């Protein structure tokens, strides 16, 4: 029994973990001396005592003498083995852990430096390269006899580009959300891709308000289009699309040359994607040159500089009290996400960073105002969300002026009319040192030109109309697509159903106007409609319900006139997709997938000499928009509208969640790293109030 | 003996480290079975065997039976204890280490988020504050009856500021190297400090060339002056100093108000420090509006945009081959550190990043040219250094044109004359898409105005002259100091010595012109001179040597005429301190130290009603410039001129060393973090070629 204990102890020692097992065999006499040891030394002490016990026991048994241990102790004669205290052991282990960690980290750093060292090129790469003569001196042609860029100077730059040289030419106008989503989902080897855009970077627009006050840096929100293009071995032309000649399949583009002269030329296409986005909607208001916009990086920089300029002028001894209050009155016109987020960021800046180094008087005299034409801010969001945002702003001393329409922006004030609860309009003025104009979007000049060119088929004043396959209405089928803010999907569900029903009625020999529709007929129609207009599914469900009700009461028939009215209502709702990054992104991805399919389909088709017909419908389903929800930052808290009545709003945790969403959606690993760095920077050092 | 071994073994187990000791007692029979174990399992096997040995031995001795272990084995009857293989153990330890590391890192991240969460202020701080009526409505006065900013709106913002309110007013003009060094070394409680500067940030100028091509971000090179000022509880006015009224002790400053109108007012001072820096020297060359400069952040941004614009236009199909070559011809005029570093960074950009995403044709047609008026680039550096730089550039295909003077900068070319080896001047032209002008510095408008106002006492055309205590010559003693590029220290050593010697001569009743100076006399003079002109020490040593030589040959006398000639030579050398950050920094630190001393000295002096006299000389030693060396980046290699003939030049290691120096010199923890991030960014993602 004893022996077994000892063996267990020794094995236990070897494993060190279950050392406590051995306490059982400690003789009572030893317990006293153990008690004298500091409690922390207990584990080692036990080990030691144990071992002595074993040793003594061996001697005892060898001599047949089972006397007490105490008597035997002097016989040992040699000094007690040194044991380490738990402090020493802990330090030893902590040291070991620290040592290993430092070594691993050190190796990481050294590794990074070694990697870094490989990124410096020492020798220039100047080898002979092939450039087509046609690329250097393009032939002229087209309606205006301009140079046609059929071949590019980098068409032979690498093997991949050489292989794509004779593939169908896919030209993308614009490098925004739609264009970039398309590029990121496109197969690399199917098309000769060219992107034409006046800026050579993609801008992550949803976080632009954060950049205006220095929470984020401009460079963290942008990614060079060339870098994104390199995946599909594409080409980039920094120029502005001016016109499209649909019959010649030519895009007319303009660029300012080094002498400041405008140069125009053509870029030919086989497939054209129009994704030029939108411009700020002036709503016919006077004096908008006194206001600031927020569409691109330059706008954001102008805003940042103006805000800091106002703060600096407000500090000067010569600035009067009224003037200081005016300079520090920041007015935002537009209660959509951009306006709300800008107001929130502005408030953060003033509240968190201004007071650190600027005179305290400024903080007291600052005011932020938000002018909204509707009765609530964030009116496209769930009602609870906009209520939350309004409460938050009320607490944060951001003045929200609802039911107000701006009449004029003057250099030193903004004039607006506010609808009173009794319905009367009152004209008011607000001194303003800064006015942001963010009240929705309207068509670009190119889109207006194209819509006019295409005539009656384009009846929407706000965007280019496409069918549900995103093909621009009025252009040769399968040539031209339009995605993103510049486009809208025409869901002519009503027309389609009505035609179908008319046919049905005549077939039954009845006048359609007095047709009583049966539920079974309706199911047939609905099935067909769902396939052609996936967007309408939810609305058709509503009709289903309606029918079910009719079915109960009046044996499943519906009056034709009633039905047409209902369908028209659905139509108008379907046509207005939101002008958001989300929609553009989905359309870009959809189009890329279809183009990928079409590229492989066309091989088979051209083998069979099939060139016409509704290839898009044959190749891929129609576009369907899935609303994934909306979110907005409202000053140390954020709101999420997840659609269908679900919404969340909260404080700091929601802010982190809001950031996480955008972090995940960000365009590249590079921008993600930069975003993380920026947020850490804000936490550590605050926002820097410098203008340049 | 056995027992002792066992006890040692068990103690060894407890310590685990010296477990090998126990192999001795393993019975030979067991060795065979041990051999069957994998070598990696040896340690655990030994432990186990040992323990069994102990167990068996106990039984053996108890029974008085000392038979072999092999016979005893079956008696044990129970399964052998499980031992872990070294792989399992290693994994266990690695897992533990990883676990601890992840936990520590995780805690770090959580800690950071918790800290971050505290940086969001939820409630606005709008408390009542005291603002002097005089700060809101300053009284008018001075030569032009302008408002005088005697009290500031933030004078009562906090306790520290309140305490400094009635301290002597120290006004610093400029927030460059000199001004910032002064602020960083000044005692917080001695002065009411005000900084007046047209920009509200300090710019780390030596790294500006890196920012032009995106190696570094602009924001990594700047630090808000307000943040630096907060240490001394100072005040900042973003305005431009226009004039100084020395008799009224008023600085006249101008600022543009929100309507674009210039507003002027006075800022009173007790002590004024002029540190306004310098402007680019036009050298009277025509067409400089076609060239770019590199003095501030806006210049750097303009350059960055122009470079990228040129690259983009060069990609267009309508750009002819000649035009493309011209657009890609980058010319730098000036072979000093700025010009050389810009050329090097430009070359890096073109070599490392351009080829990644731009057409390869561009790389072949790009050229970088460096025009230098002297016979070598970096001509202020050691000769080996400039030779190294020239060799490096020759290898990197950066064309260095020495002995060349620019005559005119045209929009599409640069015209210069080059001195041929035979001494003739040849006029040459170079097509240029971009011209950088970086050929030294000249005086700002303010300095010119002040020099003119002070009259003959300011005879230097290039800078304001001060005495060795950095007091501006011609102004009331101890009122006005000038430091940095805008100033130069007048070391009138010659005048001083000559006067001294003249006195000496007349005392001896001799004509000074025929005075033969003895070595002992000279030592006396030198002692006095050293104290007043610390800068001259090295030169005086040379004189000492010279004297020693004369001493040997002609019994220690020197001709007065010879001496004067020598002294004048020394003088002219001493007066031209380099226009570098290093000098400005040293002067700023020196002045701060002196002002700290003066503040406490003045208490005693005012108690004794002493107001005049050379307080500066009484309080602190004269300024002495210590040249710590110069360094320059020359394209994946760097050169260090450590002074007195010592110089180092090398490849990548030198680049890292060069960065380390600037990293250490950087103005704040914030900028250091950002610099490190930027360098890591360049390594990971390259430079981003985007313009905005």
Automatic annotation (TrEMBL), chains A, B:
Where is the EF-hand domain positioned along the sequence? 538-573
Provide the primary localization: mitochondrion
Transmembrane annotation, as ranges: 94-115
The UniProt entry's GO CC annotations, sorted and at most eight, read: mitochondrial inner membrane
Listed Gene3D superfamilies:
3.50.50.100
Indicate how the chain sits in the lipid bilayer: Peripheral membrane protein
Q: Which GO terms describe its molecular function?
A: calcium ion binding; NADH dehydrogenase activity
- Cellular localization per UniProt: Mitochondrion inner membrane
* Sorted UniProt keywords: Calcium, FAD, Flavoprotein, Membrane, NAD, Oxidoreductase, Transit peptide, Transmembrane, Transmembrane helix
Protein family: Belongs to the NADH dehydrogenase family.
Query: Which protein are we looking at?
Result: NADH-ubiquinone oxidoreductase
Q: Which organism is it from?
A: Pochonia chlamydosporia 170
